[in-house]
Amino acid sequence: MFYIIIFLILTVSWAVFLYDILSLRLMQRHAESADLLKEFNKLKEEKEALDAENSRLNRVFAETLALYELTMDVCKSLDEEQVFAIFRDNLKKHIEVRDCQYIKNSSGLINYKDYTVLPLSTAENQIAGYLVVDGIPDKDKEKFEILSQQFLIGFRRALFYQKVQGLAITDSLTQVYCRRYFLERFAEELKRSRRNKLHLCFLMIDLDNFKQFNDHYGHLVGDAILRQVSKTISDMVRQIDFIGRYGGEELVIVLAETDKEQASFAAERIRQAIEESVIKAYDEELKVTVSIGVSTFPDNAENMQDLIEKADQALYLAKGTGRNKVIFCPS
Length: 331
Fold this sequence. Notes:
Layout: H1 2-68, H2 70-74, H3 80-94, E1 99-103, E2 116-121, E3 127-134, H4 141-169, H5 179-196, E4 200-207, H6 210-217, H7 219-236, E5 242-247, E6 250-256, H8 260-276, E7 279-281, E8 284-286, E9 290-297, H9 304-320, E10 326-328
Parallel strand pairs: 9-10
Antiparallel strand pairs: 1-3, 2-3, 4-6, 4-9, 5-6, 7-8
Helix pairs in contact: 3-4, 6-7, 7-8
């Protein structure tokens, strides 16, 4: 009996001991599980935060990429006005501004005192215009800076193209049309005059005694004379007329939609203006004169070559009879 009691006591003690061990292990595992769950929840929260930040960065990247893609749109045109129109349309898609204008001359800025003004410089750092904008939200100023830089790329590209085109069609010394391009324009204007039954006059102008100026003062002074005479003539003709350098010291003009009487007045004004002007060339102050031969369409000829020859004959007569005069080819 005694041994049975001892056995039962030992059994119960062992059972209690095992129970305590199992309970301890269960508590440890429960604690470990709680820690794992807590770590899992922490990792889950961090993942959600990373996903949200990644989504935000993707949106920012897409928006920024869209801003820079404006370059593709503005570079579709080589006309500065069209480049601005494309920019303004794109600007309104990204930023709510009250007004946006492109101003070519600084004198026009007086009407935009309260606007943000962005000078538009060329690659040579010369101001070629101004972008004026009103009502840029503070939150969008960085966007506007990006967009305006894209506009400047397209703007400079258009200006460069115009410069290249200008070099191709103008004489570098006189800044009037070169002979080839002048003759192209002359042919086009003659077709238009013939089609619409309009008058047209052709003037051939030659500087009197130009060789003597070159021989006495040198070619640099001669170039300065030719440049100033060309400018004087350019300032006196209308926008529908055009001037070219025919060769050497010879300049030519087409007076569109002009009859003989009107051409006589225009040619005499040109001759007189040149005679009265003082040309400052380096250290010299000089006076020059010109002789002018004029032919008219359709009175003197029907085609361009004949009109040139008739005006040349009239010019030859003007130079042979005293110079500094206007001679019309007889009908």
